């Protein structure tokens, strides 16, 4: 099978890749990579759509039919989180108390993972901010509460948490929707911040990889590269409606060259953004000091 996704863990000591329905994990700490490669059992649904490390020893994997949570430690059991359609993107908070999936049915599905003795009732946010009761399920020592966040223009192709896991950005259409996970029920009972500025669908996004930062960069089919401070937004005219955020920085001289991937520089200040385009060009942008 074609290798579709490649990720490394935070320490840079493990790499994971998806090939069809199979997850491969390689220990990079030694020289003999092939002998240190582990192949996990194939996922139950279709091909793997996305993979991400959570810390150094846990992986979340999205596929048609749900999400799997794998541990790279020998003998550790995983968790299967089922969903009835294709999950295109996946992310999790650093403590693995929330797992989210961007779905083909134009919503973000959320699994809250807790201990069985945690009896707090779950509430989901649907259709851009209305409350709905979460579904609860007990599964082998883990209590699951499920939510859905709707109101997207198209399928949700990207989901990512910021450094602390307090904010989750999601791309579906020309807008980027940011949900607040600081409450006891995650985004339950809240309304999102909607980032505006693209004229065509967003294709990629990334949080600035710094503790305490809430800067988000997005790029899209329109070739535009936009940076948002997700704490700066206009309050809605009506209660229960989304809050809107405009970009605080725009890459100059936008060209109609679809963006396919982006990343922040790993340097200490993380102020340089690299963007790949369908033309084969990689452009870099240096973010000025904004505060």
The end-to-end span amounts to: 47 Å
Radius of gyration over all CA atoms, rounded = 19 Å
The sequence of SSEs as H and E is: EEEEEEEEEEEEEEEEEEEEEEEEE
**Count of alpha/pi helices:** 0
Give the structural class.
mainly beta
Strand order of the largest sheet: 5-6-7-8-9-13-12
Q: Globular, elongated, flat, extended or rod-shaped: what is the shape?
A: globular
How can the largest sheet be summarized? 7 strands, antiparallel
Total strands: the figure is 25
What value does the average pLDDT take? 87
Uncertain spans, ≥5 residues at pLDDT below 50?
116-133
How would you briefly describe this protein structure?
With 291 residues, the protein is mostly beta strands.
Task: Give structural attributes.
291 residues; mainly beta; 7-stranded antiparallel beta sheet; 5-stranded mixed beta sheet; 25 strands; 50% strand; globular
Describe this structure in words.
The chain has 291 residues and is mainly β. Helices cover 0% and strands 50% of the residues. It has a seven-stranded antiparallel beta sheet, with no helix packed on it. Strands 14-15-16-17-21 form a five-stranded mixed beta sheet, with no helix packed on it. It is globular. Residues 116-133 have low confidence and may be disordered.
